[in-house]
Amino acid sequence: MRQPLLALLAKEPAHGYELKLALEQTFGEAYPSPNIGQIYVTLKRLEQDGLVRSQDVEQTTRPNKRVYELTAMGREALRAWVKEPSDGPRIRDEFFIKLILAPMAGLADRMELMNSQRRHYLGIMRNLAELHADTDASDTTARLLIEGAMLHLQADLDWLERCLEELV
Amino acid sequence: MSRRVPAPPAPEGSHLPSPPSAGTSQAVLLRTRKLVKVYRADGVTVEAVRGVDIELVSGEFVAIMGPSGSGKSTLLHVLGGLEPATSGEIWLRGQRVDGLSTAGWAILRRRHVGFVFQFFNLLSNMTVADNVELPALLAGATPRQARRRREELLAELGIADKAGVAPARLSGGEQQRVALARALANEPSLLLADEPTGNLDSSNTRDVLRLLRQAHDRGQAILMVTHDARVASLADRVINLFDGMVADDARIVPVPRVNGVRSVMELRG
Fold first, then answer.
1. Domains parsed from chain B with CATH numbers
2. What is the CATH number of domain A2-83?
3. ipTM of the predicted assembly exceeds 0.90
4. What is the largest CA-CA distance in chain B?
């Protein structure tokens, strides 16, 4: 949440609710909609860290609103974040730990574990495929996020096959 | 997006040594019993399919998955009579077919089994139209009937304007549509598809899948080998082969969606 807010503020100063709308507009349906309370808390912390500053803007008919802008330090932090390579997704180690440990403890058969995991993945894959089909063709951001999720899932399934080959 | 899905065979019942039953609510279209395929060459024996029992009911869409070398393509070829079974039984539409001669298989395929392959396998010295009309003509349709059916299919698959073209001048996606039209020309009881999207980019993959689903929605039974889970997830049921045997056979159950895209994206972390 911190970096997306900094990035939006790098474009122009804004108040909390504008930031929420901007996030929703940018990522569309495919991204968890931010909660406004969470945005205010994050902005407060960013201000404490010296990355943004704020001032009250008087409004005649409504309560004052607090407008935030990026500080030089904030811009520096944002630049560093953008430059730094991002971590890839972690391997799904919880399933792997089950796969390794459960048979040792006599709790489950590996083939059964893999079969039920595969069924679960395929169920999710079905959801994603349907979402993709239902997503407006013009909503590139949402489609790319869904396609990314599908490719990760395909990799999980391929890896499951490797486990099957080696462990059963 | 939701479709009616035929019930899968009972998980335990498939081991019972009973002949294809006529009394079930859904007609059994295809059934195998202890199906085995062994290749022998130069003293080397490869057991590609080792005792497979599967069942497909009319109108069902089933995907076969499994690691490479698990026997999935061999199984499909044996089921379509492209290669003889070594032992075991194949029943199609209540008829035992594993003992058919090459000619017997050819006649059966003409009427009841359509094939789609990864590399399209179109006849390169014929036009698209001739490729699609040929199966109908071989099955005894008049040239007029064959032409009408071809026009209908090509229009449906969005390639009506390619009728007079040689297959080699088409893109991979277009060639696979022609292959699909050819496979569906005689309204087969069963469509066998061997990695039908294996040679296509993702947008052509989506198109071919959409067409397969359209055919399925109209009641076409499909048995499809694929290693692509995106493709397999559209089937009613997935059979997983491992080492020439059925390791799993289960309906695809979508994970409940509470909040549309978001919940699935969160699920994927």
1. 24-267 (3.40.50.300)
2. 1.10.10.10
3. no
4. 59
